[in-house]
Amino acid sequence: MAVIEVDNIVKEYMVVKKEGGLRGAVKGLLFPERRKVRGVDGISFKIEPGEIVGYIGPNGAGKSTTIKMLTGILHPTSGSIRVCGISPQEDRKAVVGKLGVVFGQRTQLYWDLRLAESFELLRRIYQVDESTYRETMATLERVLKLGEFMDTPVRQLSLGQRMRGDLAAAMLHSPSVLFLDEPTIGLDAEAKHAIRDFIKQMNRERGLTVILTTHDLDDVEQLCSRLVIVNHGKVVEDGPIGTLIGKLTPKRQLVVELERPCADIAHPAAEVLKQEGLKIWYQFEKQRITAAELIADLSRKLPIQDLSVKEPDIEDAIREVYKAKPEEAGVVEATEPVAAV
Ligand SMILES: Nc1ncnc2c1ncn2[C@@H]1O[C@H](COP(=O)(O)OP(=O)(O)OP(=O)(O)O)[C@@H](O)[C@H]1O
């Protein structure tokens, strides 16, 4: 049985149309013109146990709205959702017991308590019995290396430590599904690595199902086996990462800094985008040549002082690949949210 079944869900919001200028503002106050917009417009997908799925799309695509409906915070205007066979609308409490949620930008830890006290409070809220809690906590402490800051007040934790704390908090009640919203945002390379390692380990050892929204291409490449790509409230692609990632990010850039000027900087498999002094920007297609091959070729003929590979922006790539006609978009500009309907 699928862990998550989403069948043709729609979410409509009421918004007030805004008009420019003082006259427009007064008119808007006296005679607000309301209209419905679709934040999610007929989304369907199924997720099987143990999958790690990247749920990605540009800003305003409908990712948060979908996650809020899956967790029961919002109700769909139409369509149906099952999480572990349960409808979040009908029994939110039961669904919450099956889910762990981590928002990179917010914390569910208690700012004024020490980390260990925060966990104890969450244990009581989730009604985890003490022996199960001790066992789970021992694993989480070891894998996430929480020991050194268990007694630190949450407000004094670094962002990376707090994220590790938040992941542990989300796993305290041994959920079957973990929702991660930008789990590595703002973290340094080492902290990102620790977070990704933990997710992989929980998935491998406990069969944890993970849904991940992220703007970080490395998160997607290193964690996800499948991508569901949304744009303008609709699923535009759903498939294995191997086939989709190349389509989304066909082009990369290599920035090379030379030690001294050179006349022949061309390469047959890469385009020179621009040159500023000793710095050259090459653009190349992953399918045609790998970064390592290009670097090896160039360093044979050029005196390279420094270089870096630039990944394309995942958001721009999605927008570019899945350009929708405005009438299909279902999104109205210059509107102000009023209410979910
Ligand atoms: N409370 C609300 N009232 C009105 N419209 C809303 C509301 N919440 C979201 N929307 C609209 O619904 C659409 C989907 O928004 P949503 O926040 O789900 O997108 P997202 O993909 O999560 O974007 P981001 O990456 O910026 O978080 C957007 O057009 C947004 O403006």
Automatic annotation (TrEMBL):
* Keywords for this protein: ATP-binding, Nucleotide-binding, Transport
One of its Pfam families is: ABC_tran
| Residue intervals of the ABC transporter domain | 4-257
Gene Ontology molecular function terms on file: ATP binding
SMART domains given in the database record = AAA (SM00382)
What Gene3D superfamilies does UniProt report for this protein, alphabetically? Answer: P-loop containing nucleotide triphosphate hydrolases
Q: What is this protein called?
A: ATP-binding cassette domain-containing protein
